[in-house]
Amino acid sequence: MIYVLILLPICFILTVTLIRRRQHENNKPVMERNHQSQLHQLKTKQTSAEPVRISAVESDSKVNKPICSILIVDDQAAIRMLLRELFELEGMIVYEAINGAAAIETVRTTAIDFILLDLKMPDMDGIEALQGIRRWNEHAQVAMITAFGDPLKMEAAKQLGVQSFFSKPFDIEQVKNRVLNSLKKKDCKAD
Predict the structure, then answer these.
(1) What is the pLDDT of residue 32?
(2) pTM for the whole structure
(3) Cα separations in angstroms, 188 against 25, 28, 63, 148, 180
(4) Which of these, 12, 79, 168, 185, could form a disulfide with 147 (CB 3.0-4.6 Å)?
(5) How many domains does the chain have?
């Protein structure tokens, strides 16, 4: 029942977001739409071990910074989808992982600037996943998402460099603002 109450507003928000996005796309000049389509194709072709970073020169000739990337790690598909849409609309490259092992593999093969990490997952908890992530990327900023705030786990997360904690159900605007503010300090560009 709790999941239904959580998923219902998420589905509504996603629907509204998609409608707005399509309306926004339809109002753009054809040349701009084609350019963004080419950028999207470049982003989705990242299959090599070393990620292709699209420079901001390709997307915005005024700033010469790479586009920020974010990894969303959560076993709930609806939450991953909601956060993906939210950050793609901000111009970020978004990766998803369904569990801790997939998150570690993504960080091993891809440059990630920010990680939103669920604390409770089936294969390993967020602390174990973060320990594995830190072997490959010590500098990515991390925020944890949790439905249950275990003080011992939260303290362990802080020792591993977690900056923020969000409780489910979370306010997506608060998450977005916190992530974007954190990334302002990094050498990357989020629109």
Answers:
(1) 40
(2) 0.64
(3) 25, 25, 10, 32, 11
(4) 168
(5) 1
